[in-house]
Amino acid sequence: MALGSRTIILSAVVIAALGGLGYIVFKPQPVSVDLHELTRSPMRQTVDADGKTRIRDVFEVSAPVSGMAQRSPVEVGDSVSEGVTVVAVVEPLDPGFLDARSRRQAEAAVEEAKASLQVAESNVRQAREELTYAKSRYERTKSLVEAGVSSLTQLEDLTQQQTLREAALEAAFLTRDMAQSALTRAEAALIEPGLDRNGGDGTDCCVPIMAPSDGVVLEVVNMSERPVQAGTRLLSIGQPGNLEIVSDILSSDAVSVRKGASVLIERWGGDDLLEGVVSEIEPSARTKVSALGIEEQRVDVMIDIVDEDAAEKGLGDGYAVFVRIVTWEGDDVLQAPLSALFRSDGGWAVFLVKDGAARQVEVSVGRRSGLVAEILSGVEEGAVVITHPSDKVSDGVSVIDRAAL
Fold it and tell me: Where, if anywhere, are coiled coils annotated (predicted)?
């Protein structure tokens, strides 16, 4: 009897031990998760994009005439003054050589012009003599009229003749000027290459180009002497401190951007954050192919840099930056990480942690910015949510903070 009782007790102990061991082995283990406590704080909604600095007003200097551009008198980085500094010199093209027939025609045109000038000189002398004769007759007749010998009608006729002779002399002078210009034009056709076009020693043959604005030479297309056509770009001038940023953003994002919006400027090379303001939004978009080969509609946004010492800090023309254009901001907003949100029945939900277990809760989401989203309803400030929930997390599952392990 004693042996049977001992056996029963031992069996019960073994069974209890096995049961406890089985419970320990097969008991569901809490799922390790990352937790985040919801808080209220300022929130900004931004449009993020890459940008590039550029000098706002760049003056392009071009050749006014075709010819030979002399070696550049300025270099990149030189300071120039408006209307004072010579930034380029262009020597106009030499005339071409004349063949035998063209030379004979040009020489004949010169002789014809000389003859026309002589005729015009003769007409001037004739008109001057006729005017002198008309004046003398007028003076004599005027004296006779005063003496009562001649009639007033004769004096009026002579007055008219004198006026006509004055007009004829003036026309003769103009005709002589025309003949002189025709002779100059005809003689210019005989100018050979290498001769001074103005008939001097050749020192004033070139066209100097003055700086159109105060600033610094940004680029010289070519330092060496070379032939150029009229309109060829020679150099550019600007003020390095007068910077702006141009950033191309998606047209769908440009809809929410307004002129005067605040801009945060990052990744420009310095440790501090620069501030800017949207100054202009291009009225039309352009098609741009992305790195993935997708056609996108892009809009250029111009941004003024608020920090006046940006150039002194090292920011220059053509530098790469990263901009965040603020489209909305709030001072007291309940926020949740986007990694805590997931879709549920067409809406949004999060996993709250209550008494060591995950509880699925439906939430209403407002604006989103970067890695956070505005929570309008469903949870309160101070609630603890699970971020990056795995497929092991479901409603009622025990969880444990991974950071506490």
Answer: 103-137
